[in-house]
Write a structure and sequence with these properties.
Subcellular location: Cell inner membrane
Shape: elongated
Helix content: 10-25%
GO molecular function: energy transducer activity
Strand order of the largest sheet: 1-8-3-4
Membrane topology: Single-pass membrane protein
Largest sheet: 4 strands, antiparallel
CATH topology: TolA/TonB C-terminal domain
Low-confidence stretches: 7-17
Order of helices and strands: EEHEEHEEEE
Number of domains: 1
Number of helices: 2
CATH class: Alpha Beta
Structural class: mainly beta
Protein name: Protein TonB
Keywords: Cell inner membrane, Cell membrane, Membrane, Protein transport, Signal-anchor, Transmembrane, Transmembrane helix, Transport
Length: 117
């Protein structure tokens, strides 16, 4: 059996997280409403490989994900494609500020790929 898990913060993030002002707090309240788990690459499963991918992305004012970039991964190049493919299907309830839907830039996520017994 294989599975993937999501962690919202890496223990050692690759970059300093941006600071937020009180005006930005409402923007932080976009919420994930559709989460697609990444598929475990079959070759990685056969080889017994586990790993993770840290991705950055933006959320548009409609709640769609765009500008997905791999910031780091271990092992490199093994899980990147499936992580990006799944993340592209995620959907958010848009953040609202002043009654208007807002885009949210610079979101990061850690997707872990683990084999279970």
């Amino acid at each position: 059996m294989t599975f993937c898990s999501t962690a919202w913060a890496a223990t050692q993030p690759p970059r300093q997280a941006p600071t937020m002002s009180a005006d930005d707090i409402e923007l932080a309240e976009s919420s994930l409403i559709v989460r697609i788990d990444p598929k475990y690459p079959s070759q990685a499963a056969r080889d017994g490989l586990e790993g993770w991918v840290i991705l950055s992305y933006n959320i548009d004012k409609h709640g769609s994900v765009y500008d997905i970039a791999v910031l780091d991964a271990s092992p490199k190049g093994i899980f990147d494609r499936e992580a990006r493919r799944a993340l592209a299907k995620w959907r958010y309830k848009p953040a609202v500020k002043g009654g208007k839907a807002q885009a949210v830039p610079g979101v990061m996520v850690l997707l872990e790929f683990n084999l279970s017994d």
